[in-house]
Write a structure and sequence with these properties.
alpha+beta, 13 strands, 14 helices
Length: about 400
């Protein structure tokens, strides 16, 4: 079958793969296909489990807390949305609602429809939308944030996990298993098979499903997923650069202001991101502090400078190092959502400790700019086209 690599634009023929086999782009090493015998059945079962468990995780009790067995509290995932809405900023509240709950659930429903083989109109568009939601569905980020929030809240109160937390952990596990089991090339071929013709010339191609369409022209809709064939990629450069530029000034309030505020009997204590790392380390939770340090400081710095480097190299192209830069982009794409861990910690910890006038955790003013930074960097990564680096360097598409 003939596939056009979405990262470098190389059109190439790959043979039929045996179970467990995979094919990579001969030019940039992108994974083009990976064949599994029962992967899609496993992915379907995982999607069904997510669709059932996620509503339970949202409304069942998440964690309970007690203050010296005198005061008792309880939190739910949906209660975090209300707390953020009243204490911080409503876009942050809606962002948590969408990233932690709605997007994973909608993605699971779309996968159930597509993988079950139900003959519905626009099945290719459904699978494309489910793949687009992949980066925005952050169940594993929420689980790690809940892990850190659990230890942060345990500093001043006794905290326990409830049924909602167990359901959400199961959702994150099922999503991870389903993503790694899914044979995406087999799904695309079940919707519309890849062309078998060997590429002797440039074909109009899709950047989403990697279909090479010899009978279509650039600008036409992809017959398989509905995206544009050979869509203009220069138009995405300026918005990506603007998103990175907008994130830079937000780093000042994000790292100088408090990410969490603890109002207790001894006074009001404010903790920045680095202050939270120090607090966790001082209380013996240094492993948790390392997670906060890596997700809250190291990864955002790598993302910001990495995207700046890639954007600059588009304007000052060079054939040398193209493969290395394309690999770097793929790493940035995998890591970019993990800094959302920090504002999610504040969102999950705040509803756990709610003993007004005695002990209370409030999401601090730094949560909003940090949330905005991560959202802008995610947007920049999605808008940036690695194929543009190859095009400006003068490397032909095929």
């Amino acid at each position: 079958m003939t596939i056009t690599c979405a990262d470098c634009g190389a059109t190439q023929a790959i043979p039929d793969l045996s179970p467990g086999g995979f094919a990579e782009c001969h030019r940039c090493d992108r994974l083009l296909a990976r064949h599994t015998e029962s992967g899609n059945a496993i992915a379907l079962a995982c999607a069904i489990a997510i669709a059932i468990l996620l509503p339970l995780a949202a409304f069942l009790p998440l964690m309970n807390s007690t203050f010296y067995n005198v005061l008792f509290g309880e939190s739910r995932l949906v209660s975090s949305v209300g707390v953020i809405y009243t204490e911080v900023w409503f876009p942050f509240a809606f962002g948590f609602l969408f990233f932690a709950l709605l997007f994973p659930w909608v993605r699971a429903l779309l996968q159930v429809v597509v993988l079950s083989g139900i003959k519905v109109p626009q099945r290719g568009r459904m699978f494309r939308f489910s793949e687009e939601l992949r980066i925005w569905s952050m169940t594993e980020v929420v689980v790690i944030a809940g892990y850190v929030a659990y230890y942060r809240a345990s500093i001043s109160s006794t905290v326990g996990l409830q049924a909602g937390a167990l359901c959400y952990i199961a959702v994150a596990i099922f999503e991870w298993i389903g993503d790694h089991a899914l044979d995406r090339r087999a799904v695309w071929n079940s919707i519309l098979p890849d062309t078998e013709e060997y590429p002797h010339r440039h074909y109009a191609s899709c950047d989403v499903c990697e279909l090479a369409a010899p009978d279509r022209r650039p600008g036409d809709h992809c017959p398989r997923c509905g995206s544009r064939l050979d869509r203009p990629i220069w138009a995405r450069y300026a918005p990506a650069a603007a998103a990175v530029a907008a994130a830079i000034p937000l780093t000042i309030p994000a790292y100088s202001a408090a990410i969490m505020i603890n109002d207790n009997l001894t006074g009001v204590i404010e903790h920045t991101i680095l202050g939270t790392v120090q607090l966790l380390a001082d209380r013996g939770y240094w492993q948790v502090g390392v997670i906060v340090l890596v997700a809250g400081v190291f990864i955002p710095v790598v993302e910001l400078f990495g995207l700046i480097w890639l954007l600059v190299r588009v304007r000052f192209p060079n054939v040398r190092g193209l493969v290395r830069r394309t690999r770097a982009y793929r790493i940035l794409h995998r890591l970019v959502r993990w800094p959302m861990l920090i504002p999610f910690i504040a969102a999950l910890a705040a509803p756990i400790i709610k003993f007004h006038g005695i002990d209370e955790i409030v999401a601090g003013p730094a949560a909003t700019p940090l949330f905005a930074i991560v959202a802008l960097l995610m947007l920049a990564v999605r808008l940036f086209e690695p194929k543009l680096m190859w095009k400006t360097a003068g490397v032909p598409a095929s």
